[in-house]
Amino acid sequence: MAKINLRPWREELRAEKQQQFVVMIVGAVIVAAGLGFLWKSHVDDQISYQESRNAYIQNAMKSLDSQIKEIEDLRRKRDELIARMKVIQDLQGKRPVIVRVFDELVKTLPDGLFYTDLKKTGDTLQITGMAESNNRISSLMRQFEDSEWFTNPNLTNVSSADSRRAGYSQFNLSVNQKTPEPEEEGKKK
Asked: According to the 3-state scheme, what is the secondary structure of the chain?
């Protein structure tokens, strides 16, 4: 007898292929979802790793900023101390100068003349005094010119004194102070 297949085999084949297609689609979606999840996990791990690195850098920057501020404070304090030391050294260096200036003032003072007032402004010394005669004032000016500590004597006023000092003339004189070179100072001592 002849075999005749009356069953709807084409529809079964189509249903079976459709079922295989759906399984493959579902499998592909599951694989894609798994790959997507792995990719997202990897990206999240990278983001959290980068955020931790950023946080570390931020903390390090804060630490460095505080250290920089401390260094700037220390530099400022150092500069202030250096300035103070320089002032002290300048004062220490000038201390013998004022003694020498007063010593030179006494050396240049001729007989019959005395000082009543001394004022120093910068390197200029304003001298007010009394003299028995004008010759003594000119002698004082010559001695200032010959001095190694003074230069440019300038007589600004000569007037007769009040009645208490009869015979004396009052004078106003300005003279510039010069600081001799260290070799000159050493030779004089």
From this structure: CCCCCCCCHHHHHHHHHHHHHHHHHHHHHHHHHHHHHHHHHHHHHHHHHHHHHHHHHHHHHHHHHHHHHHHHHHHHHHHHHHHHHHHHHHHHHHHHHHHHHHHHHHHHCCCCEEEEEEEEECCEEEEEEEECCHHHHHHHHHHHHHCCCEEEEEEEEEEECCHHHCCCEEEEEEEEECCCCHHHHHHHC
Which residue in 179, 104, 178, 185 sits closest to 140, CA to CA?
Answer: 104
Helix 134-146 to helix 9-108 angle, to the nearest 10 degrees? 140
pLDDT tens readout for residues 168-183 = 888 888 888 876 555 4
pLDDT at residue 75 above 70?
A: yes
Structure confidence at residue 161 (pLDDT): 60
Comparison of pLDDT for 17 and 137, the residue scoring more: 17
Alpha carbon 63 to its chain's center? 23
Question: Is the alpha carbon torsion for 50, 53, 59, 60 positive or negative?
Answer: negative
